[in-house]
Amino acid sequence: MTIQWFPGHMTKARRQIEDKLKLIDVVIELLDARVPLSSRNPMVDEILKGKPRLVLLNKNDLADPQVTSQWVKYFADLGLPALPIDAATGTATKEILPRVKQLWAHKIERQLSKGINPRAVRALIVGIPNVGKSTLINQLAGKKIAATGDKPGVTKGQQWIKVGTEMDLLDTPGILWPKFEDQMVGQRLAATGAIKEELLHLDEIALFIVRYMVQHYGAALQERFGITELPEDMDNVHEVVKVMEAIGRKRGAIVSGGKVDLDKASLIIIRDLRAGKMGRISLEKP
Ligand code: GDP
Q1: Is residue 60 part of a domain?
Q2: Does 131 sit in the ligand 1 pocket, CB within 6 Å?
Q3: Residues 169, 144: Cα–Cα separation, whole Å
Q4: Ligand 1 midpoint to CA 134 (Å)
Q5: Is 19 found in the same domain as 154?
Q6: How many domains does the chain have?
Q7: Which of 143, 196, 222, 273 is the most buried (most CB within 10 A)?
């Protein structure tokens, strides 16, 4: 579900996360591996106030593995451990518990040294809408629990989900907002499906995708759509539109009179990208 964020919503969402933070030891920050910075809340460091944090790069099944490795290094350089995962299939999600425990090991050791039996580490998942928070909660819980309630105004009674005996996870995630002001960020989020198409025109999103594909993944684009030639000058909108038309023609997106239906072609391009039909594509590099 996509929400239109207004200053009032942001304040409310922030307050809700701050309430949850009081209950937890470690934050799990969920980002989209294809667009890690664009899917990141601009105020996240300030909001999380120095809580130990594990970054998860989700939907890694759709991202370019080479670029994802660069992102892992990028976050490591910031002092943040980052782990690429695929919440939908559970790939690498088994790694989460040991990583979270590592971040809390000093507290556990202190408890042990005082002769106290350490309790389970308490964790909270935070992230922008559609990044896969509910999917991950369900994956870690081993059953379907989380309602996809992306309404910042909705409060539910909080419950803990036991992840083994060593981690308790809050059953409702913390919902953060992306940075809408930046046009490039908006395009990346629209391309990956984090924000609804209605907020941007289909052809704008497809134009962004095709331009990026020609610049970074030309061969994959050619292979997917059987295009023989790609333009050199991607700053020229007309050249990009020509590629979109070629794709439309190849895929039968034609209106009467033989013209290409650009909206239909755009939808094909967007859907193919999101479904990984062009291969594993990252839309942002460190
Ligand atoms: P939330 O709004 O953050 O709770 O996001 P959801 O858990 O509802 O997931 C949003 C969409 O992303 C759903 O269609 C999920 O099936 C999909 N999704 C979640 N995780 C993954 C993943 O690792 N890979 C892929 N390909 N899709 C995912």
Answers
A1: yes
A2: yes
A3: 14
A4: 7
A5: yes
A6: 2
A7: 273
Could you tell me which residues come within 8 angstroms of residue 77 by beta carbon, excluding any fewer than 6 positions away? none
Query: Residue 250: what are its φ and ψ, rounded to 5°?
Result: -60, -35
Does one domain contain both 240 and 145? no
In a domain, residue 185? The reply is no
| Claim to verify: residue 134 and residue 73 sit in the same structural domain | yes
pLDDT in tens, 1-42: 456 788 898 999 999 999 999 999 999 999 999 999 999 999
- 169 and 36 in a common domain: yes
The answer to whether the CB of 195 is under 6 A from ligand 1 is no
Does the Cβ of 129 fall within 6 Å of ligand 1?
A: yes
- 24 and 60 part of one domain: yes
CA–CA gap between residue 146 and residue 221 (Å, rounded): 37
Residues 28 and 151 in one domain: yes
Q: What is the CATH number of the domain that holds 222?
A: 1.10.1580.10
Residue 245 falls within a domain, yes or no?
Answer: yes
Q: State whether the beta carbon of 84 lies less than 6 angstroms from ligand 1.
A: no
Per the document, the length of the chain is 286
Give the separation between CA 222 and CA 258, rounded to whole angstroms: 22
Instruction: Report H helices in 114-235.
Output: 133-141, 183-192, 202-216, 218-225
End-to-end Cα spacing for the chain: 28
Residues 34 and 63 sit within 8 Å (Cβ to Cβ): yes
CB 158 within 8 A of CB 61: no
CA 135 to centroid of ligand 1, rounded, Å: 6
Both tokens of 144, joined, read 């379907």
What is the tens place of the pLDDT at every residue in 50-97?
Answer: 899 999 999 999 999 999 999 999 999 999 999 999 999 999 999 999
Which range of residues forms the domain containing residue 220?
201-274
Q: What are phi and psi of 40, to 5 degrees?
A: -105, 140
